[in-house]
């Protein structure tokens, strides 16, 4: 990335980059939670358990491990929460069937059907498009700031044009990163 000689314009571009990076990181998190055939603790990231009257993230109540590609093990730090954790996993509608042995909860991960794989690919595409829209919105917002700075500080036309070109390059780079993430996730989901 080329440095823009105006400090204010450079700050606008740096801010845009930071927000685009956050959008990309959010997409990574969203895609990690999509099940792709093998068990990962991220599959249970959104599960909330009613624990002493408070809805608590499962990750705060137990350690979650994937000792095998088709099995998750949930080991609560407080064994009295086992029943509530098991109910929360069932109620999360993840298509999982936990079994509680009194100490730990074993969750066998069934293989994905072709139909379910296609649903997951659609969900991944929707999340990727949301990330692209967020990145374009960041670009639009930054472009508005560049125009405002141009008017308020009476900046030269060519300087603002250079800043807008840099902004577009930045946007293209992050859109491409989103596309690459989506491509990898689709391949992972469709891999049998």
UniProtKB/TrEMBL annotation:
GO terms for molecular function: ribosomal large subunit binding. GO terms for cellular component: cytoplasm. The keyword NADP does not apply. Keywords: Cytoplasm, Protein biosynthesis. GO terms for biological process: translational termination. Residues 27-190 form the Ribosome recycling factor domain. It is found in: Cytoplasm. The keyword Cytoplasm applies. InterPro entries: Ribosome_recyc_fac, Ribosome_recyc_fac_dom, RRF_sf. CDD domains: RRF (cd00520). Belongs to the RRF family. NCBIfam families: frr (TIGR00496). Responsible for the release of ribosomes from messenger RNA at the termination of protein biosynthesis. May increase the efficiency of translation by recycling ribosomes from one round of translation to another. HAMAP family: RRF. This is Ribosome-recycling factor.
